[in-house]
Structures are given as C-alpha cells and as structure tokens.
C-alpha cells in the first residue's frame, strides 16, 4: 500500500502534459478551428506517450484534414505552470501553412468533427490574443516565440563574451600570433 501511495504521489508531482496544435491559415487570412465539445480550438491535442509533438500535430491534423497533411516549423512554445494540484504543461504551436479555399465551414474527415475558417482576429477562444500575436510575430520574423503562461517570456540579458586568449602567451611567439 505504501508503494502505491508513493507512486501516486510521484505521479502527481512529476505529471506534465504536452499539447501540440496546428495553425492552418487560408490565403485570405482566416484560421481553421475545430469544435471540441462546446469550444472552438485549433487542430491539435495531447501528445501521447512515446510520441513527439510534431508527430502528434501531424496525426491529429491528418485525421481531420487530409491523410497527406504535414506540419511546418514550431511557431510558439508556451510553458504553462500548473495550479492547484495540476501539473505543468508545455504547448507547441506548429505552422500548418496556407490553403486556398472559399469554404467557411465543413465536417472533418470521417464526419466526426465540425470545422470552420474564421478571420484571425475573431478566433477568440481558439487562439487567445497573446498566442495569436506570438504566432504572427513568429511567422513574420521566421523565428520561434517563447511564452510563459501565455505571455511573452522576457529573454535573459545576454552578457558580452569575455575576451580570452586561446592559448597563453608564449615567449617569442606573441609577434607571430599578432599580439
């Protein structure tokens, strides 16, 4: 019984969930959202044990959109600190590229999920304002934006590297080395 209690304790202390989502855009600036219960969210979900985040994003997007769908680079990495007994989580947002379509709503592959394309500024609960801003910044700059609890992470100040010699001065050779 004690071992079961300890494994339960350690299981709760070290629990960390990882999610992966995909930002699929249309050429006219709309974003794909899927209905999940009563909420609308970007395609994605939980990364399964033994699965990497990119594979998870690809798996979920392929199940909804197209069996040949692939994801691009990471746009946003968000570390969310757990509260009240919930473990921390790490959320990846991948670039799903752009599609050319005039469709506004459809049923996902297999008829299981309702989907729609909405203007980027109206995607609200599917992609909150800070993550939306981070994703657009990452797309524009060709970089990854790091968030902590949904807010831009303040980068640590970079210290100037110290000037150090590759080798100690050697008598008679300092002129050869340009010193």
From TrEMBL:
The keyword Transferase appears for this protein: no
Alphabetical list of SUPFAM superfamilies matching this protein: Nudix
Swiss-Prot/TrEMBL cofactor(s): Mg(2+)
Domain annotation Nudix hydrolase: ranges: 14-140
Pfam families: NUDIX (PF00293)
Top-level taxon: Bacteria
UniProt keywords, alphabetically: Hydrolase
Protein name (record): NUDIX domain-containing protein
Organism: Arthrobacter zhaoxinii
């Amino acid at each position: 019984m004690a071992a079961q209690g300890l494994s339960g304790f350690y299981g709760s202390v070290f629990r960390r969930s990882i999610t992966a989502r995909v930002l699929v855009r249309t050429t006219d600036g709309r974003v794909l959202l899927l209905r999940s219960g009563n909420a609308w969210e970007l395609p994605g979900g939980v990364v399964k044990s033994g699965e990497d985040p990119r594979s998870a994003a690809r798996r979920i997007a392929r199940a909804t959109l197209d069996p040949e769908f692939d994801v691009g680079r990471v746009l946003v990495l968000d570390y969310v600190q757990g509260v009240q007994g919930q473990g921390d989580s790490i959320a990846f947002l991948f670039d799903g590229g752009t599609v050319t379509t005039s469709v506004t709503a459809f049923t996902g592959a297999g008829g299981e999920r309702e989907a729609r394309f909405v203007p980027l500024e109206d995607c609200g609960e599917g992609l909150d304002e800070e993550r939306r801003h981070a994703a657009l910044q990452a797309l524009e700059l060709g970089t990854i934006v790091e968030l902590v609890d949904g807010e831009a992470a303040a980068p640590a100040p970079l210290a100037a590297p110290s000037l150090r010699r590759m080798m100690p001065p050697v008598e008679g050779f300092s002129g050869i080395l340009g010193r």
